[in-house]
Amino acid sequence: MRNDRNDLEKVIVSEAEIGQRVKELGERLTGEYEGRNPVVLGILKGANVFVADLVRAMDIELQIDFIMLASYGASDTPGEVRVKMDCETELAGRHVLVVDDIVDTGQTLKALMELLRMRGAASVRSCVLLDKPSRRTVELEPDYKGFEIEDAFVVGYGLDYAERFRNLREVCAIKKRVYAVE
Ligand code: IMP
Questions:
Q1: 102 lines ligand 1 (CB under 6 A)
Q2: Domain covering 22-152 in this structure, CATH number
Q3: What are the sequence ranges of the domains in the chain?
Q4: Are 172 and 1 spatial neighbours (Cβ–Cβ below 8 Å)?
Q5: Is-catalytic flag, 104?
Q6: Closest by CA position to 53, among listed 166, 129, 113
Q7: Which of 36, 89, 154, 166 is within CB 3.0–4.6 Å of 65 for a Cys-Cys bond?
Q8: Is any atom of ligand 1 closer than 6 Å to the C-beta of 154?
Q9: What is the Cα–Cα distance from 124 to 116, expressed in whole angstroms?
């Protein structure tokens, strides 16, 4: 079955806009991380597509790893994050760039960054494709970000609704009726 575009409200960020912004972020990160052999640590599953494009826009030596955390809404205690599947890389002494698809309340990213500091990383910074600042419940400002967006539930470019739409090339808002019926 094809992706059902009738469930989508509108395009929030187009494929061309994403491509241009990823290129800009990659150039900036190349300058900042040159000679530091960073670990680019993607948060699964949502960051998978962004990581794939971002690392190819960074023209430096780096390593890629992934970590999977407890699903959205599972932990509401800042500083606490459940690791479902850990990364392989020993992070002590390493420069870690955490990559996520979207920062919403900020709880996931804040908790993960605290965990990585506790593991002795030399530096921990964050890069997110999308930021919904109006939804923040904890103090957290991503170090690098693609786009600030309004408060809508979005899918595509790695982001899902119930595992659907991760493979869209653009970021779209989903119709309210799609997630209101469940
Ligand atoms: P936070 O801890 O509230 O910042 O949640 C971040 C995580 O929630 C992201 O990594 C996504 O997996 C998920 N999330 C938040 N907003 C959206 C959305 O609009 N679409 C899809 N996933 C979302």
A1: yes
A2: 3.40.50.2020
A3: 22-152
A4: no
A5: yes
A6: 129
A7: 89
A8: yes
A9: 7
